[in-house]
Amino acid sequence: MDYAATILNRLPLARRNNGLRGLLARASYLPREQLNVIADAYNFSAEAHQGQKRRSGDPYITHPTAVAGILADLHLDYQSIAAALMHDVIEDTPHAKEEIAARFGPEVAGLVDGVSKLDQLNFSSRTEMQVESFRKMMLAMVQDIRVILVKLADRLHNMQTLDSMPAEKQARIARETLEIYAPIANRLGMNSIKVELEDLGFRYIHPFRYRVLDKAVRKAEGDQKQLVRKITDRIEAALKAAGIRGTVTGRKKHLYSIYRKMEAKKRPLADIADVFGFRVVVGNVDECYRALGLVHQLYKPTPGRFKDYIAIPRVNGYQSLHTSLFGPNGLPIEIQIRTEEMDRVAEQGIASHWLYKEGDRKVAPPQSRAREWLASISELQASANSEEFMEHVKVDLFPEKVYVFTPKGDILRLPRGATCVDFAYAVHTDVGNRCVAAKVDRQLVPLRTQLQNGQTVEVITAKGAQPNPTWVNFVASAKARSSIRQYLKNLRVTEARDLGRRLLDQALRDIGTPLRKIADERMQRLLDEFGLNNTNELFEQVGLGERLAPLVAKVLVQEPAGQPAGAGGTPLPSTPITIAGTEGLVVSYARCCHPIPGDEIMGYLSAGRGVVIHRTACGNLGEFRKQPNKWIAVNWEPGIDREFSVEIRVDTDNRPGALAEVATRIADAGSNIEQVSVDESHDDCAVLKFQILVRNRRQLADAIRSIRKMKVVKRITRTCT
C-alpha cells in the first residue's frame, strides 16, 4: 500500500475521495510529514466549503484540489500546495487568516491572504476593486513570489472550466487573462501555463476564429504528418552520426501565437513561416551549437531569422537557439535547440528550481530574473494611484526588449522603443534624475533617441540636474515613467510650500504682522478651521493657488474676510514678490503674452498651478477687475540668468527663401528658435510667427532691430493677446 493510501485510510469515509488520492499521488515527491500537512489542508478546506457548489454543479472543493494539483505537477513545495487548497477560504467562508496561521503557520496564511481578493472593502466601481486587488496581489508577490504561482494555477483552472459561465463573463475573464495573467506567466518563464492560458483566452474571446483556425491547423498537421516525421528522423540521424545524444520532437505551434502572427503581418495561415516547429534537446551548450551547424547543413537557413538566446537570455531567463529553415518542398520550419536544463526552465520558468536547495536557487536564471523584476515592482509601489501602478506593471509585462551595453560591457534589457533616458533610469534612479546628455556608440545624441539592439550607451550626468517634465512623453519603461513622475510630484510640493510661505508672509506684512509674529495658538486654530494637519499643507495650498494668501492673512489677524479688498475694487497695496526664474513648477509664464525680464508684470493665482506671470499689457488682465484678490504684485529679480520664450510676428515678401533668411538672422542675433509657423500667405506677403528664446528685453530688441533692417521684411511686431 502506498503512503497516499495510508493517509486516506486515516480520514473519515466522507473525505476519502479520488480527488485527494490523485493530489497525493501527484505530490509524492514530497516527504511523508509534508503530505500529512497537505491532507490536513484538504480536510480543513473541504469542511470550510461544505455545501458550496461551483456554477457547474460540482462540489466547490474540486476547484482548490485541481489548483493544488497544477502546482504539484510543477513540483512546488508543500506550503504552496496547502495554500492552493485553502486559497478561497478567507474570501468565501467565515474562517480568518489568524485561524489558518495558528493551524498551518504564518507562511501558508500569508500566501492565502495574498491571493484573496479585496471584496470586504468598499470601492467606487468594479474597475477600482479589480485594480486594487491586482495591486495587492502584486505587492504580496514582492514579499513571496509563490503568491503569483498559486494565483496562476487558480486562473488556469478557472479558464479550463469557463464553459459554465455566461458568454459576457467568459469574454471579460478571458480578456483579463490575456492582458494580465498570461503575460505574468511569460514574465516568469512558465511557458506551459502561459500557452494554455493564451489558447483558452483566445477560445473565449474569439470563439469563431478559434474554431476556424483550429480546424485549419489540424488539417495542415494531418497533411504534413509524414513530412514532419521525415524531418524528425533526418535530424535524429544527423545527431547520431555526429555522436550527439539528443531527442527531436516535432509539434505545431499553439493557436494564439499563430493568430497573433497572422494579425500582425496581415497574412493568411499559409504564409505564416513557423506553424510547425521542432525542438532539439541535447546534453550541453557545446552540443547546442554543434547541432545548429548540423541542421544548417541539412536545410537552408532563412536569412535574418537566427536568434541566440543562450548567449543573451530573454528577460525571463529563457535560453535556446532559434533558427528558421526552408524544409522539404519549401515548408518553412522553426527549430529550437537547447539543453535538458534549458528545456525544463523554458516550460516551468521560476518553478523549475523551486525545490532546489537555497544556494542553488539563488543562481538559477529564472529566479534571478524574477527577483530583478520584483525589485522594480517594489520601487513602483510608491505610486499612490492604483490605476497608475497597474499601468506601470502592464508596461513591464510585455517583454519585447532591446539589448544594449553599458561602457563596461554589461547588458541591459529595455522595452522596445526605449530611449537614452530609459537607459539612465535602468542603471540607477539617481543617474536618471541627474542625466543631461548621452552618447550612443561614442556619439552625442539627444536624450529622446530610441535605442537599437547592440548599441553601447553612456550617460552624462551633472550635479544639480533634475528630470525634465517632457521626458514622460517619450520614455518607454515603467521604471523611468514612475521615477520621473514621483520626482516631479515631490519637487512640485516642495516648491509650492516655499512659494506659499513667501506669499503668506508678504500678505501678512501688508497688514502689519509678519508670519514669524503669528502666535502658534492662532495658527493652530486656523489649521483646525481649514481641516489641515500642519502648516506645510497650508503653505502648499497657498502656493498652488487653492487658497488666497490675502484671505488667509486676514483670518490669521482676525480681520473680516468679506470686506472689500480696497477702494474701487482695486487690490490692497502689496510688497511685490520677486521672480527669479528658477521657481520651477509652481511659477509659470503665460503663453498668451510671453513675459520676459524687463517687462512690467503681474501674477495671477491659478488653482492647482500656482502663480501665472502675465505682462501688464496682456489682454487677459481684463479679468483683473473681476477677481482682484487673485492678482499679486510681482517683479523681476535683477540679473536673471536663463532664457524665456517670446513670440514675434514677421511680415515678409512672399518669395522663396524668405523664411530661411529670417531664421538665419534670428540665429545670428544669438537666439534659438523653438517653433515657427506660417500663418498667412498672399500674393505679395507672408506672415511668419517665430517663438524664440531670449534672456531679456534688451536681447529681444537687438534681434528685432536686426530683422527689421532686412529688405525682405515689411513689418515686425511682438505678439500679445
Structure description:
The chain is of the alpha+beta class. The protein has five domains: 3-210, Orthogonal Bundle (Hypothetical protein af1432); 216-353, 2-Layer Sandwich (Beta Polymerase, domain 2); 367-485, Ubiquitin-like (UB roll) (Roll); 490-636, no CATH class; 644-718, ACT domain (Alpha-Beta Plaits), CATH 3.30.70.260. Strands 1, 2, 3, 4, 5 and 6 form a six-stranded mixed β-sheet that branches. Strands 12-16-14-15-13 form a five-stranded mixed β-sheet, covered by helices on one side. Strands 18-19-17-20 form a four-stranded antiparallel β-sheet, with helices on one face. Helix 5 crosses helix 10 (146-160) and helix 8 packs antiparallel against helix 9. Residues 118-125, 355-363 and 559-573 have low confidence and may be disordered.
Explain briefly what this protein structure is.
The protein is of the alpha+beta class and 721 residues long. It contains 28 helices and 20 strands.
List the topology elements.
Elements (H helix, E strand, L loop, with lengths): L2 H8 L7 H9 L5 H17 L13 H12 L4 H8 L3 H4 L4 H8 L1 H10 L10 H18 L2 H15 L6 H21 L3 H15 L1 H17 L1 H17 L4 E7 L2 H11 L10 E7 L2 H14 L1 E2 L5 E2 L12 E6 L5 E8 H9 L9 H6 L1 H16 L5 H12 L3 E5 L5 E5 L4 H8 L1 H6 E6 L2 E3 L11 E5 L16 H33 L9 H11 L4 H9 L5 H8 L20 E3 L7 E3 L11 E6 L3 E6 L15 E6 L7 E10 L4 H11 L3 E10 L3 E10 L2 H12 L4 E6 L3
Parallel strand pairs: 2-6, 12-16, 13-15
Antiparallel strand pairs: 1-2, 3-5, 4-5, 5-6, 7-8, 9-10, 9-11, 14-15, 14-16, 17-19, 17-20, 18-19
Helix pairs in contact: 1-3, 2-4, 3-5, 4-5, 4-10, 5-8, 5-10, 7-8, 8-9, 8-10, 9-19, 9-20, 10-11, 10-12, 11-12, 12-13, 14-16, 20-23, 21-23, 23-25, 23-26
